[in-house]
Amino acid sequence: MKIILDAGHGGKDPGAKTFLTVEKDMALNIALQVREYLKRNHEVIMTRLTDEYVSLSERCRIANRAKADIFVSIHLNAHDDPRANGIETFSFPGSENGAALRNAIHLEVMRLLPDWEDRGMKEANFQVLRDTKMPAALIECGFITNEKDERRIHDINVRDTFARGIAAGIEAYREGVS
Ligand SMILES: [Zn+2]
Fold it and tell me: From edge to edge, which strands make up the β-sheet containing 70-77?
């Protein structure tokens, strides 16, 4: 498969920020680790490899130009309410293959991280889900505004577990469609 991995934000766009954590850095770290797990068996294209700004429309263009098979975007969540916590995964409303990809990723990640809150599999009209022509999913790897999630995401083993789950979900999706 040709897989686009999209690390959220970057450069002048930090994403969510707390005193300790910047979303763009954590998202890139997890995305690069997902690539490590997939690159033996797949062609993996990153929308960014470093801390650089890439617009949302450029991310979609990269994926569409490459005629990729799937698009997976990696983010971390934030909320005004510090109690909000856990993992949620999105696909574009009405996209059946997007939902299949989303579900496969979500279920594998939750299987590896059973002590995290499961916020479920959802639909959202996000640009990177809407303007990409292939099945697309976006995962929010916990809330950096929640003390417990934030502490855990600073553990490299936890980030690696997210990466393993995302990679396993992609493989499970491929087995489901082939
Ligand atoms: Zn984000």
Answer: 43-46, 2-7, 70-77, 136-143, 87-91, 118-123
